[in-house]
Amino acid sequence: MMHAVVGFLAGVMASMGLGGGFVLVVWLTVFEQVGQKTAQGINLLFFLPIALLSLVIHLKGGLVDRQLLRRYIFGGVLGAILGTIASNIIAAELLRKLFALFLLCFRTRELFSARKQKAPPDKKENAR
Question: Whose CA is closest to 37, among 116, 122, 119, 94?
Answer without folding.
Answer: 94
